[in-house]
Amino acid sequence: QVQLVESGGGLVQAGGSLRLSCAASGSIFSINVMGWYRQAPGKQRELVATITSGGTTNYADSVKGRFTISRDNAKNTVYLQMNSLKTEDTAVYYCNLYQLPRVYWGRGTQVTVSS
């Protein structure tokens, strides 16, 4: 069993920064992918960024150059540094862990960007 707990969400003004953290616990395999997804009201959940256990990253075009995903394998923790935030970044952000054969999700953390 795997548990994911996000933290760091909150309210920030446009142009500001925020860092999200997600700590995974339980049976974590050596090879996996962790990532962040988000869902705004009335929209589908979308990928924000992913990072493999080897450090390979992938970003949605909408956040490239502004967000940085990183991880600490020793702590089984993934981070999302969000800079130059825009109002359209407002969403519930979900932590994700993919390790064969399953996908795990955190409960989400709200990020609200005001103008």
Helix content: under 10%
Low-pLDDT stretches: none
Dominant shape: globular
The largest sheet, given as strand count, sense and whether it forms a barrel, is: 7 strands, mixed
Beta-sheet strand percentage? over 45%
How far apart, in Å, are the first and last alpha carbons? Answer: 41 Å
Structural class: mainly beta
Give the SSE string: EEEEEEEEEEE
Q: Please, how many helices?
A: 0
Based on DSSP secondary structure assignment, what is the total number of beta strands?
A: 11
Structure keywords:
7-stranded mixed β-sheet; 4-stranded antiparallel β-sheet
How does this structure look, described?
This protein is mainly β and about 120 residues long. About 0% of the residues lie in helices and about 60% in strands. It is built from no helices and 11 strands. The protein has strands at about 1-5, 10-15, 20-25, 35-40, 45-50, 55-60, 65-70, 75-80, 90-100, 100-105, 110-115. The strands form 2 sheets. Strands 2, 4, 5, 6, 9, 10 and 11 form a 7-stranded mixed β-sheet that branches. The radius of gyration is 13 Å and the shape is globular.
Q: Can you lay out the helices and strands and say which pair or pack?
A:
Layout: E1 2-7, E2 10-13, E3 18-26, E4 33-39, E5 46-52, E6 57-59, E7 67-72, E8 77-82, E9 91-99, E10 102-105, E11 109-114
Parallel strand pairs: 2-11
Antiparallel strand pairs: 1-3, 3-8, 4-5, 4-9, 5-6, 7-8, 9-10, 9-11
